[in-house]
């Protein structure tokens, strides 16, 4: 992490929304004080792939950029759904990017050391399915050597791969960063351990967040594979049995947990695929609180909040975010939405908790 990245993250803000709709603004550094003994925080430990590849459409000789959008199968690193652009780079707004050259099944793309074959024609002008030639290992090696992180015009300087990895990044399967996890650092994890706050992980292949096509964006997020360890299943069961909160770090964690829930409300360990959007009226049966980034109205991350708060509260949140200059996008500020506790009680120990919680004053 660069010095500028470190300063930006240390200066980040946090808007806390309680179950009563009341709000409180804190430095994000105060996050560690908001959870008490027995609460369980769950984060996505997926590392981010260098999923943007530049090269040439062999049939026409024209420049092309491919952004991987979703895995066809997590067990097969040779086939992906992808978004195709023509000449240009991330400094141009995605909506204004040049279209790719006309693509047809069988077309070959030279992407650095990799060759990809178009399997399906575009369903919309930018969406295609690709098959990379070679083994899984060769494809991953090619991505590592030639690919770059997907990024957008709001961050004009090129990003290094390490800048889109969270502190707990492990298995590289995310297409874009599970960016709510940027709020985590080892200091917070140590404080949670001291306070008796549980911490667990799952791995969710967070997909592309913007395609540049309004119709296609309505379909986001695409299907996303996930894996939940048995120890995370056990930790969730233990927390629920004690009446503790399950706190999701990011919308990808919500999607994975709510996709893996059984009819009795318990969570099933193992691998699966999160499908469809979480919207207003979607039952949330596992997660009690959500830490997420600040997103723009209309995108899938923002719309997921409708499953946690009513429209009146969401409108109030939007006004506070705009009025107080909260930063959007993956390197911006954060929201904590709690469906179980009021703002006044956040950070206080539950009855019978032997630990003394730190007051939620952001100090």
Structure write-up:
The protein folds into 2 domains: 3-47 and 159-345, QueA-like (3-Layer(aba) Sandwich); 52-146, no CATH class. It is built from 8 helices and 17 strands. It is an alpha/beta fold and 363 residues long. 20% of the residues lie in helices and 26% in strands. The longest helix has 13 residues, at 311-323. A hairpin with a 4-residue loop joins strand 5 and strand 6. The chain has helices spanning 3-10, 136-146, 186-195, 214-217, 230-241, 251-259, 300-304, 311-323; strands at residues 13-17, 23-27, 40-44, 47-48, 52-57, 62-73, 76-85, 108-111, 114-120, 127-132, 172-174, 198-204, 224-228, 246-249, 270-274, 289-293, 334-338. The protein has a 9-stranded mixed sheet with strand order 2-1-17-16-14-3-12-13-15.
Query: Any idea what the radius of gyration is?
Result: 21 Å
Tell me how many strands there are: 17
Structural category: alpha/beta
**CATH architecture group name of the largest domain:** 3-Layer(aba) Sandwich
Q: What is the makeup of the main sheet?
A: 9 strands, mixed
Mean pLDDT: 90
Number of folding domains? 2
Label the overall shape: globular
Low-pLDDT segments: 350-363
- Proportion of beta-strand residues: 25-35%
Helix content: 10-25%
Distance separating the two termini: 24 Å
SSE pattern: HEEEEEEEEEEHEHEHEHEHEEHHE
Number of helices, counting only DSSP H or I runs of 4 residues or more: 8
């Amino acid at each position: 992490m660069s010095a500028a990245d470190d300063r930006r993250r240390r200066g980040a803000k946090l808007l806390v929304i309680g179950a009563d709709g009341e709000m409180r603004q804190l430095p994000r550094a105060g996050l560690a004080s908001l959870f008490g003994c027995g609460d369980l925080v769950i984060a996505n430990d997926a590392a981010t792939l260098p999923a943007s590849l530049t090269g040439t459409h062999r049939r026409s000789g024209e420049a092309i950029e491919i952004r991987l959008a979703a895995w066809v199968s997590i067990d097969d690193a040779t086939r992906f759904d992808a978004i195709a652009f023509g000449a240009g780079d991330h400094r141009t707004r995605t909506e204004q990017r040049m279209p790719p050259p006309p693509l047809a099944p069988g077309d070959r793309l030279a992407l650095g050391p990799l060759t990809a074959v178009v399997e399906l024609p575009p369903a919309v002008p930018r969406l295609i399915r690709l098959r990379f030639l070679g083994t899984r290992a060769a494809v991953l090696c090619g991505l590592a050597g030639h690919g770059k992180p997907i990024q957008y015009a709001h961050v004009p300087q090129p990003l290094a791969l390490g800048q889109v990895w969270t502190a707990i990044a492990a298995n590289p399967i995310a297409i874009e960063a599970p960016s709510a996890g940027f709020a985590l650092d080892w200091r917070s994890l140590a404080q949670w351990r001291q306070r008796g706050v549980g911490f667990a992980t799952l791995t969710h292949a967070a997909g592309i967040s913007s395609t540049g096509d309004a119709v296609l964006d309505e379909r986001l997020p695409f299907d996303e594979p996930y894996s939940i360890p048995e120890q995370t299943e056990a930790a969730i069961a233990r927390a629920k049995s004690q009446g503790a909160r399950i706190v999701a770090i990011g919308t990808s964690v919500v999607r994975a947990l709510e996709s893996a829930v059984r009819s009795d409300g318990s969570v099933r360990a193992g691998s699966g695929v999160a499908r469809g959007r979480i919207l207003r009226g979607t039952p949330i049966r596992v997660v009690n609180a959500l830490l997420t980034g600040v997103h723009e109205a209309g995108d899938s991350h923002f719309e997921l909040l409708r499953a946690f708060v009513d429209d009146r509260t969401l409108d109030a949140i939007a006004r506070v975010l705009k009025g107080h200059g909260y930063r959007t996008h993956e390197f911006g500020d954060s929201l904590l939405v709690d469906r179980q506790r009021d703002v006044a009680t956040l950070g206080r120990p539950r009855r019978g908790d032997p630990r003394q919680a730190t007051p939620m004053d952001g100090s």
